[in-house]
Amino acid sequence: MKITLNRINDDFLFECTNSQGNSILLDNTSQPGAKGVSPMESVLMAVAGCSGIDVVSILKKQRQEITDFKAEVEGERVPIDDAKPFKSILVKFFLEGEIDPKKAQKAAELSFEKYCSVSKTLEPNVQIGYEVYVNKEKI
């Protein structure tokens, strides 16, 4: 796996591109007019995307009918010297459709305990939790 990062303005805007040519913009969001996401926001996005792919994949294999899927991810940071790494991350999944709540809960559990490489990478240093909501009810 390899990505390339190219600076695309005179400040902090970078384009990150994967081997398939897909890209995202990273920027210093503490500056006015930022045109990309911060690197730390991209970490939260990666957790959401990785676990989201797992949950949807597991539920599709179980023939659950997902009509809507959203996730919200919040990260709490803690100062350590000059850096502010994540201390904890909470992922909230919001699913709609003909979905067995127990299966949705189990899919999230499997993602974080077994499959999600992003959360597994962060896990030694970051406490990662999750909540599952099916048809607006918390499981």
Please tell me about this protein's structure.
The protein is α+β, with helices and mostly antiparallel strands. The strands form two sheets. Strands 4-5-6-7 form a four-stranded mixed β-sheet, with helices on one face. A three-stranded antiparallel β-sheet has the order 1-2-3, with no helix packed on it. A hairpin with a 6-residue loop joins strand 1 and strand 2. The radius of gyration is 17 Å and the shape is globular. The mean pLDDT is 97.
SSE order and pairing:
Elements: E1 3-7, E2 14-18, E3 23-26, H1 39-61, E4 65-77, E5 86-98, H2 101-115, H3 117-122, E6 127-134, E7 137-138
Parallel strand pairs: 5-6
Antiparallel strand pairs: 1-2, 2-3, 4-5, 6-7
Helix pairs in contact: 1-2
Q: Structural class, from secondary structure content?
A: alpha+beta
Q: Would you tell me the overall average pLDDT?
A: 97
Task: Count the E strands.
Answer: 7
The general outline is globular
Estimate what percentage of residues fall within beta strands.
35-45%
Any key phrases for this structure?
single chain; 139 residues; alpha+beta; 4-stranded mixed beta sheet; 3-stranded antiparallel beta sheet; 3 helices; 36% strand
Short description:
The chain is built from three helices and seven strands, in the order βββαββααββ.
